Task: inverse folding
């Protein structure tokens, strides 16, 4: 069993390499390319999310049938290629291709990461510890990312492409660790093979879709406004070398909250948990549209985003409970990610349009819309 236990610490290193610590710099780097304008940020983001949408659920289905390790190797290889394209990018289309490959890599690991660790813990007879272990691994990775996030913006003073060059090495290390994983030989016999449509039908009437849509909306809106956070802060006068402070501080909050966030599952029902988030996230968008103080703005952005990421594995555990031991773990979790991708794709263009009017107007409008749409899945959520 020790060979399976090694998957846990190796997964920690792999997950560290999978975090796009250069993400706050992407939109700023994009605007240094010839002929680019802020409105195109929504366009390249949208194309990436479209790519995620098209392969998200099929990638989970692929992982369930052909192996989690093979899928993670493919994902990490695409992530490496994406970073390489950012290094050599000299036009809108080269950069956009890098963005698309980055989103494809994320889609391939989305659902597969959790299914791989869930299956590893099953082998170790520790399946009930999934939420606790995954939230802590994710939180500790966030702490490890802090020096990288803080340091990368300073490298731009030497060369705007240098952060991406550094990450090529990080991606290569991550790929080596994925190759060393002990594979989980999950077997889906011929008579157990089901189409995606039949799998969807199996969870109809459960809390799976209300949970997936509710959380997918929160993630979708947060991702959609993500590329505009850095340029918004820069427009308020924050120097580019301090842009990493926002992301690093959110990672620090992620680390702190992630140590205890799994306890929410013990103290509250899913609906009680989401009744708080129903107001929390819309208020976040509305509040940041009114605050002119950069320091307060950074703290609020970091705190809410740190919480959002720390609770993400908790959502995955909610969903795993809803599918009740199905062998199609990656497929179901990828279906959740695909719901998120649809929202991201739609909102990226809407956010680009709203932000072209005004960043403050854009954040305020997104907050109002988010509250309205969150009410719908919340009302369909059953009390368990």
Result:
């Amino acid at each position: 069993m020790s060979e399976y236990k090694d998957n846990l610490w190796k997964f920690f290193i792999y997950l560290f390499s999978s975090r796009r610590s250069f993400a706050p710099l992407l939109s700023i780097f994009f605007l240094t390319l010839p002929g680019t304008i802020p409105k195109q940020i929504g366009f390249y983001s949208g194309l990436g999310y479209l790519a995620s949408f098209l392969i998200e659920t099929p990638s989970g289905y692929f992982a369930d049938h052909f192996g989690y390790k093979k899928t993670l190797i493919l994902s990490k290889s695409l992530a490496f290629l994406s970073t390489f394209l950012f290094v050599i990018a000299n036009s809108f289309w080269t950069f956009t291709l890098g963005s698309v490959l980055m989103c494809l890599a994320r889609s391939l690991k989305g659902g597969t990461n959790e299914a791989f660790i869930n299956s590893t813990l099953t082998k170790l007879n520790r399946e009930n510890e999934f939420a606790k272990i995954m939230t802590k691994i994710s939180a500790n990775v966030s702490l490890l990312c802090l020096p990288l996030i803080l340091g990368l913006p300073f490298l731009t003073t030497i060369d705007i492409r240098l952060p991406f060059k550094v990450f090529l090495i990080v991606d290569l290390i991550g790929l080596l660790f994925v190759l060393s994983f002990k594979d989980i030989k999950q077997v889906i016999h011929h008579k157990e093979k089901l189409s995606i449509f039949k799998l969807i039908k199996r969870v109809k009437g459960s809390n799976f879709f209300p949970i997936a849509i509710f959380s997918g909306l929160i993630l979708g809106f947060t991702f959609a406004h993500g590329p505009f956070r850095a340029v918004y802060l820069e427009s308020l006068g924050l120097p580019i070398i301090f842009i990493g402070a926002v992301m690093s501080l959110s990672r620090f909050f992620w680390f702190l909250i992630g140590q205890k966030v799994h306890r929410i599952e013990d103290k509250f029902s899913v609906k009680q948990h989401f009744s708080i988030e129903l107001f929390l996230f819309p208020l976040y968008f509305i509040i940041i549209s009114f605050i002119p103080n950069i320091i307060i703005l950074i703290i609020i952005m970091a705190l809410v985003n740190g919480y959002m990421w720390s609770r993400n594995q908790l959502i995955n555990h909610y969903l795993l409970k809803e599918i009740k031991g199905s062998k199609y773990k990656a497929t179901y979790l990828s279906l959740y990610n695909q719901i998120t991708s649809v929202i991201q794709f739609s909102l990226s263009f809407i956010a680009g349009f709203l932000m072209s009017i005004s960043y403050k107007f854009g954040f305020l409008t997104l907050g109002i819309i988010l509250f309205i749409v969150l009410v719908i899945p919340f009302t369909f959520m059953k009390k368990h």
Remarks:
- The mean pLDDT is 82.
- Residues 7 and 181 are 6 Å apart (CA to CA).
- The chain has one domain: 9-379.
